[in-house]
Specification:
The chain is of the alpha/beta class. The protein has four domains: 49 residues, no CATH class; 105 residues, Beta-Lactamase, CATH 3.30.450.20; 162 residues, P-loop containing nucleotide triphosphate hydrolases (Rossmann fold); 121 residues, Helicase, Ruva Protein, domain 3. Helices cover 42% and strands 16% of the residues. Bound molecules: adenosine-5'-triphosphate. This is HTH-type transcriptional regulatory protein TyrR.
Length: 533
């Protein structure tokens, strides 16, 4: 599977691991073969609680040759052991689950931990063949049967009643003749492990969050800030520079929180009683930017207000002016901005007198401004003027510890807004934390809002996620072709409805008629609120 790369974490690898495989190939950044990662290695890493370590530390060059098991104990000795009270006592005192079958795959014994982890009772499985348990949907796949078939130890991920995921390691016990006499399996709960890990992450973060923001004035509007290890230095620096008038350049992808940091700096500055004005230089038509920034005198151009208008520089007088997407400012206006920034003075469009203001300037861009300077597309003198302090705001994929608290924060927000009480399942959190979030925090917020609105059950689970986020493994692992096709169809319809807002446009985008989409929506219980006709 090309999906496995050296940077992948144990946690991500284990959730993707194809059912029934013992090993998968791993590739390096250039696409070259780097070795194998085995289920045994993942299992060992999970047992040591190394969920966030990269798999590169566990990759091996060659697959191990299967161990030949000791077979000096006779079959009757084993038989009397498995039937003894002593065996029950020993296995029942273990924290991990234990499952014992005979050499044909018929269940002989399960310990108490196995019953706790899986919810399966001994009477449900005792004397039953593993194949039968698969048919009944109690387990998804049998490591014991695999071990019998291969006559080798096998480790794999199994689903219990389509809910919990467990790691099962099965070891065959062989006779001198090489027949499998018994299979001994040990079992660990991954769902629980992952949940515990996230709970721990969340606790650590909540603690830090409180520690870092407790100094904020009440109702400052920043009660819900999530500050993780990667962004803490930025907020500390923001606090330090807030008290000065130093010009700040915020760089970072879209939706990473540049505008939020600008507001934070303003709120912590001596200008916090003044206005915070924000303008997106890329969103205004080029011919209007100058008037928006600097204002204009009466009758200075066609379409202008008779009485003239103040520009945003004047509106921000005494406060902070945040110029977003500064790289989009046309070159000819960069000269005027430079002068305004240096002297806090400028002329309105069509004006003859200078206007004096007292404004603190913060700028932001998602581009690399230095490169634009080198290419001659941004003035070097202005670049140095605006960039006394630079903040590089990292993308969400490099702030993974913040994903879970952000999901929680938005879940609370939208639960309140829509009067719902939705919860995200641990497995779903797992997928959401491992996703790359190209659209950053805004995309995350948008997805949580959608999930709160469109899901029917209280629990938001992996199957509720849009197709681009759904793990491929689920699609092959569960359900018949018909069920899987229906799931996909439902997701595609939901996506289209969400994107286009009306059944007509959604139907068009999917290449079906409006009546067909309406019928399918009835079938899949999809509703559209306030559809525009
Ligand atoms: N540390 C944080 N904690 C909580 N919410 C945050 C945090 N950072 C950003 N957000 C939220 O994420 C959303 C996007 O942030 P923001 O608008 O500041 O990003 P941006 O980088 O300015 O985006 P753009 O470049 O598109 O203007 C906002 O709703 C903001 O409140």
């Amino acid at each position: 599977m090309k999906d496995y790369n050296l940077k992948m974490t144990i946690e991500a690898a284990i959730t993707h691991f194809p059912q029934g495989s013992n090993a998968v190939k791993v590739y390096d950044e250039t696409g070259g073969f780097a070795g194998y990662i085995t289920m045994d290695a993942l299992s060992a890493a999970v047992q040591q609680g190394e969920l966030t370590r990269p798999i590169s530390q566990f990759v091996i060059a060659d697959l191990p040759i299967p161990n030949m098991l000791p077979n000096s104990i006779s079959s009757s000795q084993f038989e009397s052991f498995f039937q003894s009270e002593f065996c029950r006592l020993v296995f029942n005192s273990l924290y991990d689950g234990v499952y014992v079958t005979d050499g044909k795959g018929t269940t002989l014994f399960i310990n108490k931990a196995y019953q706790r982890i899986t919810g399966i009772k001994e009477e449900e499985v005792y004397g039953k063949h593993m194949g039968h348990l698969i048919e009944e949907g109690i387990i998804s796949i049998s490591a014991s049967l695999e071990a019998i078939l291969k006559k080798q130890p096998v480790t794999l991920i199994q689903k219990i009643r389509n809910e919990r995921r467990i790691i099962v390691s099965s070891t065959p016990i062989m006779s001198a003749k090489g027949d499998v006499l018994y299979v001994l399996s040990s079992v660990r709960d991954i769902t629980e492990l992952i949940r515990l890990k996230h709970e721990l992450d969340l606790q650590k973060l909540t603690f830090k969050h409180v520690a870092d923001t407790s100094f904020l004035p009440e109702h400052s509007g920043f009660d819900n800030l999530v500050i993780g290890p990667s962004t803490r230095p930025l907020f500390k620096l923001a606090d330090k520079v807030a008290k000065t008038d130093a010009k700040i350049l915020l760089q970072g992808e879209t939706g990473v929180g540049k505008s939020l940091i600008a507001k934070y700096i303003h709120s912590r500055s001596l200008r916090s009683n003044g206005t915070f004005m924000e303008i997106n230089c890329g969103a205004i038509p080029e011919h209007l930017v100058e008037a928006e920034l600097f204002g204009y005198e009466p009758g200075s151009f066609t379409g202008a207000l008779k009485q003239g208008k103040k520009g945003i520089f004047e509106e921000a007088n005494g406060g902070t002016l945040f110029l977003d997407e500064i790289a989009d400012l046309p070159l000819h206006l960069q000269v005027k901005l430079l002068k305004a920034v240096e002297e806090n003075r400028f002329m309105r469009v069509g004006g003859t007198e200078t206007v004096q203001v007292d404004v603190r300037i913060i700028t932001a861009t998602h581009r690399n401004l230095k490169n634009l300077v080198n290419e001659g597309r941004f003035r070097e003198d202005l670049y140095y003027r605006l960039n006394i302090v630079t903040f590089e705001v990292p993308p969400l994929r490099d702030r993974r510890e913040e994903i879970m608290p952000l999901l929680e924060m938005y879940l609370n927000r939208y639960n309140t807004k829509y009067e719902e009480d939705k919860k995200i399942t641990p497995e779903c959190y797992e997928w959401l934390t491992n996703y790359g979030w190209p659209g950053n925090i805004r995309e995350l917020a948008n997805l949580v809002e959608r999930l709160v609105v469109i899901t029917f059950n209280t629990d938001i689970d992996v199957s509720d996620l849009p197709p681009f986020l759904q793990p491929a493994i689920l699609k092959t692992e569960t359900g018949t072709l018909k069920e899987e096709t229906a799931k996909l169809e439902r997701s595609l319809i939901l996506e289209a409805i969400h994107q286009y807002g009306s059944t007509r446009s959604a139907a068009k985008s999917l290449g079906i008629s409006q009546s067909a989409i309406v019928q399918k929506m009835k079938k899949y219980h999809i509703r559209v609120e306030n559809e525009s006709k």
